[in-house]
Amino acid sequence: MGNLDKLWEYQEAELALDKLEAEIKSTPARIKLNKLHKFLKKQQSTLSHMQKDIEAHKEIVEKISEQFEALEKQYEIELAEFSIMESDPECTAEEIRESRREFESLLEQVTGSRRELYDTLIWLEKAEENFKETWSKAGKAKKEYDEARAVCEKELEERREALDKAKAEIKNRQKDVPSELLARYKQVKLNHAIPIARVENNQCSGCNMSLPTAVIRKITTGGNLVECENCGRILYS
Question: Which of 20, 118, 181, 221 has its CA 20 to 30 Å from the CA of residue 198?
Fold first, then answer.
């Protein structure tokens, strides 16, 4: 058996493991697990952003409340002063008008601050409801995720013997392949999942490119390592 034949068998062993792993990854339980994992990851990010927004709005409520209290006290003072000025015969009409403008301005600020506080509290109430709802959905999904993961772990354990056997076969085949040939194989594999392509009907089965007669002759005589000039795969006859 030539070195290329040994390398071909090594590739066959790798492909057998790839097929087995692909079967394990494509079971309904594994597909469900992957979907739930993505969903939970998204929900986690959503909950994190929602929590930050809620905390930020709570700080806003605290600041607005402080401003509202200060404005309300100032308004009461201005209103009391205005009442005194109205009953003071020494106060001019202009002074009374100025006092009125000041407490009316304060009243507008108080009203605006109250409205802003109310709107922020309403936002917080809805945001906290949405947070609880999202948290509940994430909790249900986590339960489903744990159940699916348990099924996947059981499926993996059931295929453990076959996986170990396939991996052992790769190691055994690898021992027979010269290191420089194996190194080239792995280099080609960086670009192609299947590095070795059969020559069929004078074509590279990897890219279906027709091969020159000289290349075909070189492949079939001597067992030299020949790569497809088009795709770079190692050619095997």
Answer: 20
134-163 as b/e: b if 16+ CB within 10 A: eeeebeebeebbeebbeebeebeeeeeeee
**How does pLDDT run across 107-138, given as a tens digit for each residue?**
888 888 889 999 999 999 999 999 999 999 99
Element (H, E) at 150: helix 93-158
Q: How far apart are CA 126 and CA 9, in angstroms?
A: 64
Rg over alpha carbons for the chain, rounded to the nearest Å, is: 39
Split at pLDDT 50, 70, 90, the class of 38 is very high
Q: Give the separation between CA 18 and CA 157, rounded to whole angstroms.
A: 17
Unique residue bearing structure tokens 């062993």: 13
Tokens encoding 64: 């607005």
pTM of the predicted model as reported, rounded to 2 decimal places: 0.69
Average pLDDT over the chain reads 91
Q: End-to-end distance of the chain based on CA atoms, in angstroms?
A: 13
- CB distance 79 to 103 below 8 Å: yes
